[in-house]
Write a structure and sequence with these properties.
Blueprint lengths: L17 E6 L4 H13 L5 E9 L12 H33 L3 E6 L2 H12 L3 E5 L14 H8 L4 E4 L8 E5 L4 H11 L8 E8 L11 H31 L4 E7 L2 H12 L3 E6 L5 H7 L1 H8 L3 E6 L1
Parallel strand pairs: 1-2, 1-4, 2-3, 4-5, 6-7, 6-9, 7-8, 9-10
Antiparallel strand pairs: 5-10
Helix pairs in contact: 3-4, 7-9
Amino acid sequence: MPGEGPQNAYTKGETSGMKILCAIDGSRHSQWALDWLPQVCSPEDCSLLLVHAVDMTQFKSLSRLDRKTRSALVNLLECSLEGAARVLEWAELKASTSWGPVRAKLLRGSPAKAVARLAEREQADLLVIGSRGVTEFQPMLLGSVSRKLLMQAPCPVLVVKKPANTLKRVVLGADGSIESWEAVAWLRRLPEHIRPSVTVASVIPPLPMEGLRVPSRTLAVGDQVKEVLRREAQKLAVQVAGTLRKAGFDAKGIVLSGPPGAELVTAAARERANLIVVGSRSGRSAHEYFMGSVADTVVKHAPCSVLVHRS
């Protein structure tokens, strides 16, 4: 993953067309990320940039160490850089068999910040990452590299949680927002030979009064409101499914009721989906994202890989 400038870079190749940035760290999840690429894009239409960062930010205060220890640590960090370069070279060799020219960058820096900055600098169209790295002992820890990237990335993020299979079934969360419509547009831009069946799920969230003791008159009003919401959700699901069918997808619309993130996860399990696609608003604070984001809930609990479309 990347770092702080060209002076620290190991770089090869050129980019053109749609730009895919894939984070590589040697974990099996990042290998799955590399294998997933043909499921969402065609090598002839895309350029590929492999990135890896060695995080040395925790070793800035070397002055407190004695000379022997400091020298040993420097040697260890140099070995880490060499090992990271080998990981990138292996990934580059593997990818080049089907992608042709592939670029690779090895930079120093905090991984999430560095990858996000590079994605912005490269104007990447898609960032592909594994849900878990070699240093993350539990999937999707609060503050993990994957979750930080979901909050910081300037482009759509594909979080790979399972080995690659043919992309056959997708669950798309539709809520009428700009972000969810952009997620629809992203699906429509898939190569013509990639046309999975899509279940468009429009979710009615619980009303704030549910689970509380309220007067029967209020409950009746709540039922009326829910019926209106259900009709609107049905209209949206039908509209989105129709848009996808016009683009060659086998698409259907469904209406769900409950916490949106949990409902999308349940729907994906029921439909045996390979991928969940959701929109996510940029500019959230860390607290707002981690505590209230539908996308975060989906990525944490999904039984499959997740595409989060950020705008």
